[in-house]
Automatic annotation (TrEMBL), chains A, B:
Superkingdom of source: Bacteria
Stated family: Belongs to the Fur family.
Name of the protein this chain belongs to: Ferric uptake regulation protein
InterPro entries in the cross-refs: FUR (IPR002481), WH-like_DNA-bd_sf (IPR036388), WH_DNA-bd_sf (IPR036390)
Subcellular location(s) per record: Cytoplasm
Keywords of the record: Cytoplasm, DNA-binding, Iron, Metal-binding, Repressor, Transcription, Transcription regulation, Zinc
Main localization of the protein described in the UniProt heading: cytoplasm
DNA sequence: GCTCTATTTAGAGTTTTTCTAATCTGTTGA
DNA sequence: TCAACAGATTAGAAAAACTCTAAATAGAGC
């Protein structure tokens, strides 16, 4: 049985110019092996600790930002003083349940515009983000 | 010439159950006498200082939150670790120019949906927020 | 004016995130 | 195989934004 030295995640990291270290591989596993997720740095750090992965909070922050820059994650800001990192990097939007701070994906094609304004002079649209704030009734 | 003891702003504050103190009146003047604005607490505190209005940063935060609760302001979150307070409380959206952290209003009727998803079971839509992120080209 | 309560404030505290600089580790290639 | 080097990790300090506490101050009603 031959060894398989290049798993897909190792490839992804190398492509992004990031060494596949123990810490980055463990965090990638936690992030990407469980479907679409929205996590904060602290949450991920707790998960790592619970999974007996020793990694510092500084490394969790570094890794989340490096993954975001590499396009493996997307940062979502909906609450003052708290960043979520989204493993779904496709074009999509969010429900935000203010009561418990949960984000839920809205597929990109579930939203369609009948009218959108022109961007200000000298600028171009980077991304249109829709946040649907909902409350429990 | 008769005195005019009840200016509209005094009325607004009283209606909100807030005493029209020197600090609140001064901040209200800075906020509402200059058209639609998007300010952070620190910005407003600097403006007050520049205008020789002595007010603590704690009071600026208290006042911004009280005004928001009273419906005189709206809080806008587009950047990690920083809240904007918006003097435009009508139904509208925002351009966000990431380069310099500026917000620009999009009138509510400049955006129209052809399709919007149903909210998750057991919730109802509170508000739909559109943030159009733009870059200088 | 007196009294009562709301408000303000300085300064300490909290929370989230970033920085620093020392140590460690993955990679390369001799 | 291993030395050398650059990249990565880390603990702990620091920064940034915001909140809290408790003492002082000031509107409001009488
Ligand atoms: Mn967090
Ligand atoms: Mn600020
Ligand atoms: Zn998402
Ligand atoms: Zn606005």
């Amino acid at each position: 049985m031959e060894a398989r030295p290049f798993t897909p995640m190792v490839q992804k990291l190398r492509t992004a110019g990031l060494r596949p270290t123990r810490q980055r591989m463990s965090l990638a596993k936690l992030l990407f092996d469980a479907g679409d997720r929205h996590v904060t740095a602290e949450q991920l750090h707790h998960e790592a600790t619970a999974a007996r992965v020793r990694v510092s909070l500084a490394t969790v922050y570094n890794t989340l930002h490096q993954f975001t820059t590499a396009g493996l994650l997307r940062e979502v800001v909906v609450q003052p003083g708290r960043s979520y990192f989204d493993t779904n990097t496709t074009d999509h939007h969010h429900f935000f349940i203010e009561a418990n701070g949960h984000l839920e994906d809205i597929p990109g094609d579930s939203v369609a515009w009948a009218r959108l304004p022109e961007p200000p002079k000298g600028t171009r649209i980077e991304r249109v983000e829709v946040i649907v704030r909902v409350t429990r009734d």
